């Protein structure tokens, strides 16, 4: 069994060939530094074309920085940001958003399947309005969510309505934005600026890059001086083209979408193969590239003994993640092993 026998995470994957090729091309000549190069211009223009709007685009190294800096740009230190209790910004960023904003507090909301509801948002905004409570100024939605579900365009518009009532900016953690677009089969604009999203952190890493996230400001007023925020935080790449050129590789001929479709399809194959097996139950509906599944502990242990890697998530369910590099044959091998163990 090779090291690639894993459903641990989409960021275990390597660099997809198209991104690798673009990186090699960018390596063919010297270029201006700090984002003044042709590749960075081309990647930013490519994202503006993709979203079909005149947005401001910045590239940073990773998702925690993208989220933290984007959220910091949406309010002051005395403000708060509403997010789901399972949100990555709450559970997995080591206080990065609070740190970058000099203390803005996260307020935790609820909702089924990892999704914030308008009711939960309203509850958090209205339960206190006094000066002793950090004033809600923004909300953060993860698309697709940490539990592999998606907000529909209708759900996003309903949330925007609530956000309008309380003057909240909307941030979208798009670590798996591509997978959400693929699953919903919508134009990327439909689940971003047309649904009132102010800023999107669009992940390249989990889609097929070595590293690099695009922070896309649809609300351009919020992008004021953002380049200084990035620089201060150590997120201005000096050889920026090595982040932006691979993005060009993803954007050309919609490789980003093909990668996401492939990962989603592998997860669907997994879900279909697992569903109905004795002792096995899906914990959340399979909508993107992750399958969350309840499996007896001895089965999980036996799979790990065979070399399969995966993490446990939320109450012990196994999280099986697929990426551009997952193969249908690998899914079949996993399913065969599971079937042997449960029958
Ligand atoms: C992976 C991920 C991120 C970004 O994580 P980094 O390790 O900082 O790049 C952000 N949000 C979600 C939901 C993620 O899954």
Report on this model:
Strand 10 and strand 11 (317-321) form a beta hairpin. This protein folds into two domains: 17-254, Type I PLP-dependent aspartate aminotransferase-like (Major domain) (Aspartate Aminotransferase, domain 2, 3-Layer(aba) Sandwich); 256-342, Aspartate Aminotransferase, domain 1. It has helices spanning 17-26, 38-51, 63-72, 88-91, 96-100, 118-126, 153-165, 177-184, 226-232, 241-251, 255-274, 297-305, 328-342; strands at residues 56-60, 79-84, 105-109, 135-142, 169-174, 199-203, 213-217, 281-282, 290-294, 311-313, 317-321. The protein is of the alpha/beta class and 343 residues long. Pyridoxal-5'-phosphate is lined by residues 62-64, 67, 88, 142, 146, 173, 175, 205-206. Its EC number is 4.1.2.48. Homotetramer. One of its GO terms (biological process) is L-threonine catabolic process.
Short recap of the structure:
The protein is of the alpha/beta class.
CATH top level class name of the largest domain? Alpha Beta
Span between termini: 22 Å
List the helices and strands in order: HHEHEHHEHEHEHEEHHHEEHEEH
Mean pLDDT: 97
Global Rg: 20 Å
Spans of at least 5 consecutive residues whose pLDDT stays below 50 are none
Dominant shape: globular
Please tell me the total number of domains.
2
By CATH, the topology of the largest domain is Aspartate Aminotransferase, domain 2
Number of strands: 11
Main beta-sheet annotation:
7 strands, mixed
Helical/strand content category: alpha/beta
How many H/I helical runs? 13
Binned strand content: 15-25%
Strand arrangement within the widest β-sheet reads 1-7-6-5-4-2-3
CATH architectural arrangement of the largest domain: 3-Layer(aba) Sandwich
Query: Can you say what the CATH homologous superfamily of the largest domain is?
Result: Type I PLP-dependent aspartate aminotransferase-like (Major domain)
GO molecular function: L-allo-threonine aldolase activity
Protein name: L-threonine aldolase
InterPro entries: ArAA_b-elim_lyase/Thr_aldolase, Low_specificity_L-TA_bact, PyrdxlP-dep_Trfase, PyrdxlP-dep_Trfase_major, PyrdxlP-dep_Trfase_small
Domain Aromatic amino acid beta-eliminating lyase/threonine aldolase: 6-295
